[in-house]
Design a protein that fits this description.
This protein is of the alpha+beta class and about 300 residues long. A hairpin with a 3-residue loop joins strand 14 and strand 15. Helix 2 crosses helix 3. The longest helix is centred in the N-terminal third of the chain and has 14 residues. It is globular. The two termini are about 30 Å apart. The model has no long low-confidence stretch (mean pLDDT about 100). Bound molecules: ligand PPE. Ligand PPE binds next to helix 6 and strand 14.
C-alpha cells in the first residue's frame, strides 16, 4: 500500500513540505544503513488524538543511537514535542509516526563519526500492518531459513536501519513461499521474533514470550501486553522456546506498534486455529487502552490536543 501523503515533515527542527523532505544520494545512511529509527502509533481517543507510549519510544531511539555512537542532537522532550506539533500541523488523528536519526552527507567510508546526524519525523495514516483480515482472522507464518541477528553480530536491542536487511530477507522469503509473515529463530535455534514483531504463545492460561537473550528487540507493545495480561490475571513467563512448542500452542499472536496484536492461525502448516479466547481478550484490551477506554493506563497516552 503506498504511503498516504500529508502536508508536512519535521526535518532537523523545521517543518518542510512533504515533497521537499529530501536527502542527498551520498547520505551515509543510504550506503551503510547507519540510522536508527522508531515506529509509534497515535490513536483517536474520546479526548482527541493521543500518542501511545511516546516517551518510551523516544527513549529507545536514544538507546539505539548510543549503541551506534550517535549522539542525537535533540532531547527526548524536544522530540516528543516535535512529534505532537507535527500531528497537529497535519491535522491527523489516528496515524503512524516514524522518527529517524541518521548519519548524513559529509564523508564517505566506514568511519561515520564526522558525518552530521540528521533527524526527521514523519507521520501519516497507516492501517493494519498485516491486513484488516489478519487482525480479525489471524495470519499464516513460516519459520525462516534466515537466522535472527545475534548479539555479537549486531545489537538486537537497537532499532537500527541496517539491521532490517535481516528482517527483509526473512519477510520476502515467507511471502515468496505463500505465507503472510516469517518467524525467526535465534543463533541457538530457539524462537526469537518476527521480522517486525514480538511473539507470544498461549498454553493453558499461561502466556510465554522469548526473553531478551533470544536476540529480540524489546518491544514496547510486548511490554504493554505483558502488563495487560498480568492485570487480567494471567501468568506471563519469558522463556526460551523451540519451534515445536509453538506447533503445540493453544494460541499464538504477534505484537508490535505496526502489527498491534495480530493473531497467528497457522505456523509451518501446523494449524493453530481461529484466534483463541485469550488472544481475543488481550487484543480487545489493547485496543481499549490505546483508544483511552481504560483510565488505569492513561499514563501511556500523550494527548496531542490538550
Ligand atoms: N521486533 C522487531 C524486529 C521490530 O521491528 C518491532 C517493531 C518489534 C519487535 C515490536 O516492537 P514495538 O513496536 O516496540 O512493540 N517494528 C516496527 C517497524 C515495522 C516496519 O515494518 O517498519 C513497528 O512495529 O513500528
Amino acid at each position: 500500500m503506498p504511503i498516504q501523503e500529508v502536508e508536512k515533515i519535521w526535518m532537523n527542527g523545521t517543518l518542510v513540505d512533504w515533497g521537499e523532505a529530501k536527502i542527498h544520494v551520498l547520505t551515509h545512511a543510504l550506503h551503510y544503513g547507519s540510522g536508527v529509527f522508531e515506529g509509534i502509533r497515535c490513536y483517536k481517543t474520546s479526548k482527541g488524538a493521543a500518542v501511545f507510549r511516546l516517551r518510551d519510544h523516544m527513549m529507545r531511539l536514544m538507546d539505539s543511537g548510543k549503541l551506534y555512537f550517535m549522539k542525537i542532537p535533540y532531547s527526548v522532550e524536544e522530540l516528543c514535542k516535535a512529534t505532537k506539533d507535527l500531528i497537529r500541523v497535519n491535522k491527523l488523528s489516528g496515524c503512524y509516526i516514524r522518527p529517524i536519526a541518521y548519519r548524513g552527507y559529509g564523508e564517505m567510508g566506514l568511519n561515520p563519526l564526522k558525518n552530521p546526524i540528521d533527524v526527521a519525523i514523519a507521520a501519516w495514516p497507516w492501517g493494519a500492518y498485516l491486513g484488516e483480515e489478519g487482525l480479525k482472522k489471524g495470519i499464516r507464518i513460516k519459520t525462516s531459513s534466515f537466522q535472527r541477528i545475534s548479539p555479537n553480530v549486531l545489537p538486537p536491542l537497537a532499532k537500527a536501519t541496517g539491521q532490517y536487511a535481516n528482517s527483509i530477507l526473512a519477510k520476502v522469503e515467507s511471502l515468496n513461499a505463500g505465507y503472510d509473515e516469517a518467524l525467526m529463530l535465534d543463533y541457538r535455534g530457539y524462537v526469537s521474533e518476527g521480522p517486525g514483531e514480538n511473539i507470544f504463545v498461549v498454553k493453558g492460561d499461561v502466556l510465554y514470550t522469548p526473553p531478551e537473550h533470544a536476540s529480540i528487540l524489546k518491544g514496547i507493545t510486548r511490554d504493554s501486553v505483558m502488563t495487560l495480561a498480568m492485570d487480567l490475571g494471567y501468568q506471563v513467563l519469558e522463556r526460551d522456546m523451540t519451534r515445536a512448542s509453538l506447533y503445540l500452542a493453544d494460541e499464538l499472536f504477534f505484537t508490535g506498534t505496526a502489527a498491534e496484536v495480530t493473531p497467528i492461525r497457522e505456523i509451518d502448516n501446523y494449524s493453530i486455529g481461529a484466534p483463541g479466547p485469550i488472544t481475543r481478550e488481550i487484543q480487545a484490551k489493547f485496543f481499549e487502552v490505546t483508544k483511552g477506554g481504560d483510565e488505569r493506563y492513561k499514563a501511556w497516552l500523550d494527548h496531542v490536543y490538550p
